[in-house]
Write a structure and sequence with these properties.
It is built from 7 helices and 7 strands. It has 205 residues and is an alpha/beta fold. It has a 7-stranded mixed sheet with strand order 3-2-1-4-5-7-6, sandwiched between helices.
């Protein structure tokens, strides 16, 4: 086990005390721990975000291995347990809370009401729309959503777009998995990077 002081020294060598304090105090929720959410969680943990709340109800299977943060030893595990294990190997001193539950309109307020920033990272368009709608109506959170990262097209088409004062959408806003267009690691990771980067910008603004 690496000492917390050693991790702190490594962080202090690169960032100011003000940045470190803001990141360590930040509370961010991630809804969905697939290709977007698992990578977002890893990036935020590596960036020193001190309090993460991670929600999913799925288990890791072999179809996840091409673009998600999981590896073969995680197969069959709840994604919430698997991602918590991964993040503990990155920084065991972060506050990581998880809940293995399906997000519905009826539990959005209970799950996310205490978080100022929520990343929407679901796979299905209808569930994405539901969560964004309910977060904007039931909570005061700033929502960072992902939409359009399928296939192997130009990564520069993936952008971060501000829709309104509380909603940012990352992606190319067009490509989905229809017509045989699959999800590949590079573009999914680029979109996840946009979402994680926007979260850090919001924390440090």
């Amino acid at each position: 086990m690496i000492a917390k002081e050693e991790l702190d020294r490594a962080f202090d060598a690169r960032f100011s005390p003000e940045i470190k304090e803001k990141l360590q105090a930040a509370r961010v929720a991630v809804a969905g721990l697939g290709g977007l959410g698992s990578n977002i969680a890893v990036m935020l943990a590596r960036s020193g975000v001190g309090h993460l709340f991670l929600v999913d109800f799925d288990k890791v299977d072999t179809t996840n291995l091409n673009r998600q943060a999981y590896t073969i030893p995680h197969l069959g595990m709840d994604k919430t347990d698997a991602i918590k294990m991964i993040l503990a190997d990155i920084n065991p001193y972060l506050d990581i809370k998880t809940e293995c539950v399906e997000v519905t309109p009826g539990n959005v307020s209970r799950l996310f009401g205490e978080y100022g920033i929520v990343c929407e990272a679901f796979d299905r368009p209808d569930r994405k729309a539901m969560l964004v709608r309910e977060l904007l109506t039931q909570t005061e959170a700033v929502v960072v959503s992902g939409n359009g990262m399928a296939g192997y097209g130009d990564a520069d088409e993936i952008r971060t777009n501000r829709v309104n004062g509380r909603l940012f959408v990352c992606g190319d806003l067009t490509t989905d998995v229809g017509s045989g267009t699959g999800l590949m690691a590079p573009r999914v990771a680029v979109c996840a990077g946009h979402q994680a980067n926007k979260v850090i910008q919001l924390i440090l603004k």
